[in-house]
Fold:
Amino acid sequence: MQNIVDELYIAENLSDDELMYLIQTNEYDELLFTKAERRRKEIYGTDVYIRGLIEFTNYCKNDCYYCGIRRSNKNASRYRMSAEEILSTCEDGYRLGFRTFVLQGGEDPYFTDERVCEIVSKIREKFSDCAITLSIGEKSRASYQAFFDAGANRYLLRHETASEAHYKRLHPEEMKLSNRKRCLFDLKEIGYQVGAGFMVGSPFQRPENIVSDLRFLQELKPDMIGIGPFISHSETPFGQGEYENGSLSLTLRLISILRLMFPYALIPATTALATIDSKGRELGIKAGANVVMPNLTPEKDKGKYLLYDNKICLTEESALCREITDSKINSIGYNVVVSVGNPKRKLTTENKE
Ligand code: SAH
Structure:
């Protein structure tokens, strides 16, 4: 089996069976973590990139069974930020050293293409040295193109699960895995840096589903890969009883596997990971992650973007959040950098200077 881990390090050519085995055993965790950390340091050193997350609306027309802001949750306290609030949040973030702003939200019909483009172009105008990331769900190719032309350059859209049957158990009939995939390939073709990913331990997930996720990622070749444990939300169909949260150890193991399979990827240590364990973020970095996304959403709305229960950092103001992030990252021998934080790419004959 040691060979399998070695091989991951050299190539990405493990068989499905070998991957399945690796996912299900904790026997090789130490070896995986060590190799992933070494690989990550070869490419990204001890740098950790930060992204300022602005959760600008929790209205959503979708009804994903796992998500706390699904439209059927009548108890969610809904909010949307104005363009001015979003801009001033970016200003605060810039002062705190953020050079990437991630605008994330539910699929809120109020934010028409026109409104999104207007917001994006205002941010672009004011912060020409920053990356603008959108994470607002499934749109038409024309919409993605319009956002790109307005100045957005990254897009996060987790595929959630690459298995048809599993996708159907997590989403209502009107949502289609094929459309989600179509979106990801459109985004790539348009020229965005694209982030995909999935939840670890989502209801009904089997090891073979995770293998499909890894295979899909090999096909898509995204710049960013976000994974985090599923955490149940009490006001969703997966809120009661038998639906367990995803595990810390499997999430960490998968971060290491991802780092070895996709050495150049930007991999965040997610808020969900930090929510299931107070050291989750640091452990994620040590397992091979190289990005953190502190929450910049203004205090008055911060507590309302509740995708799952017990979400952390709901009361801290952004400056404090940033300080805490810095000291936690320093404590494990890594350092937060003020940088737009683009992915490094393998030198090939095509992209050599
Ligand atoms: N509307 C956007 C943003 C969704 S929220 C979109 O569709 O991309 C961002 C991510 O949070 C989701 O893609 C999902 O993977 C994750 N998420 C949602 N509910 C969750 C839960 N209960 N536990 C853990 N992660 C969850």
The radius of gyration is 19 Å. DSSP finds 14 helices and nine strands in the chain. The longest strand covers residues 193-200. The pocket of S-adenosyl-L-homocysteine is lined by residues 66-67, 104, 106-107, 135-137, 157-158, 160, 199, 228, 230-231, 233, 272, 307-308 (CB under 6 Å).
